[in-house]
Design a protein that fits this description.
This protein is α/β, with parallel strands linked by helices. The chain folds into 2 domains: about 160 residues, Vaccinia Virus protein VP39 (Rossmann fold); about 45 residues. About 40% of the residues lie in helices and about 25% in strands. The protein contains 8 helices and 7 strands. Strands 3-2-1-4-5-7-6 form a 7-stranded mixed sheet, sandwiched between helices. Strand 1, helix 2 and strand 2 form a beta-alpha-beta unit. Helix 4 runs parallel beside helix 5 and helix 7 packs antiparallel against helix 8. The protein is elongated.
Length: about 230
Amino acid sequence: MKLTARLQSIVEFVQKNSIVADIGTDHGYIPKYLIDMEISKLVIASDISKGSLDKTISYLEEENLSEYIMPRLGNGLEVIKPFEVDTIIIAGMGGLLITEILENDKKKLDSYLDYILQPMVGADELRKYLLNNHFSILQEKIVKEGNKYYEIIHARRGLQEVSSDIEYEISPLWLESEDSIWKEMINIRLLALESIHNDLEDKDSERSKERFIQLKEKISKYKEVLKIEG
């Protein structure tokens, strides 16, 4: 089974012989791959949508995987018991929604080991939540599909200091990476910020002036990270 670049990058963070909960499993591609490749011993495939989960169940029956993949209907971590799995995958959702899923079952979070999280948007909000709620970020990867960039975060419970708010947007782990794709992504974001900043230059409202100053500071930090002058 061949996965998309995004999904392939997600499963690469899963530990051998793990027991996994794939939250928002959709078609069940990740669970099937983890079992087929003998990466995981058991996978719980959960989804809030009955329609999506029914499709997954039919797919698992056709592939004779029902013994190794357990479908569950429900919202977020509500369907996962404490200590039932060691790895939580939450992918293909907004960063704020992922934070809500974690926050809604906060008492369970210490009972799982690895968190593999892939926000479609709002990765900065997700990092901020993680680093302010007793998580440490061990690994990150950016993958590009077409014109879209996806950020994948591997976190565990623990403490991690943040030296600047810019770290929520530009991970220190990227700076250590030999992969330059993060620079490509940040340069595109920088151009977008500069465009908005320029549009606000002649606006007179207090809100616009405040936003103008905020953007100027953020652009300066981006350029500092990218080592761009001016």
